[in-house]
Every structure is written in structure tokens, then in C-alpha cells.
Amino acid sequence: MNKFNPSKLSVEFRNGVTAAGPVIPRLYTLTHSDFTGELFLTIGTHYAWDKVNPNMRDEVLGEWKTNGHSLYYNVFVFIDGAYPSLSTSAIRNEVFRRELPLALTAIRYGDRFFFNLHPYLDDAPIIVNFISIYPQFAARESWGSFNRYSKSV
After folding, report:
1. Are 34 and 58 in contact (CB under 8 A)?
2. pLDDT band with cut points at 50, 70 and 90 for residue 152
3. Is the overall model pTM greater than 0.90, yes or no?
4. 2 with 152: CB under 8 angstroms?
């Protein structure tokens, strides 16, 4: 995993979402540049589909959800990409799993003022949905909490 570099992260707030709130709806779209290593985090009431490369589908999408009286952070990654094949999906699965800690660190850092105002969210579970047409890559997994990803900056 590459080390997170805060100077390579750009953050944009949209649709009335601010560093203070709301908690729900609060949706995150994290994209990146393979050429520069820059990360782009958009936080809004909808996903930033205009930032997603439809030919790559290598974004990380996340949102705060409720489960009864508690909150969790729900993440989606699209393992198959735009042109699925078993071999490509296997490689993409490996890359997503390797880079996801960096992505979660970037999300936590990019919205750090929000987390400072709502510190209980650092303890909320992170659930990652690996979306794939291939059963061996399709999964729903617990990836800890943001406490784990806030210490690496």
C-alpha cells in the first residue's frame, strides 16, 4: 500500500453538505489519477457520477447508513470494472483490497473536521461491499472502524 500523502488529496463539498453536516445523507465519491497519484474526494447528498470514469470503474463509494439506532459506513467497490473477465476481476480484486486502507484513510482525513464534530463516528463499523458477477469476488465484509484509519496520517 502506498503511504497516504495529504497534499495529494483534494476535497469538494456539494449539494449543501458542509464540514459540519449532515450525517445522513452524506455520500462520498473517491476517485484518483493513475498519472499523478492525486486523490479526489467529493462529499455530497448524491454520488459524484460526473467524477467517475465509466471505462475504469475504480472509484470507492461510501455513505453513512443506519442500522436500528446505530450508524455504519457502507462502502461499494466494483471489482469487475466496465469490461469484466475473470482474470481482470482477479487483478482488480487484489488491487482494491491492497489500496482500500489508503482510500479509507483519505476519506477519514478528507472529512476530518466532520469526524472531530461527530467523534462517535470513528467507532462506527465499516462494511465493504465487493460487487462482482463472479461469486469468488463478490463479498460483504467488515473492515473495522475509522479509528483504524485515522492514526496513519
Report:
1. no
2. low
3. yes
4. no
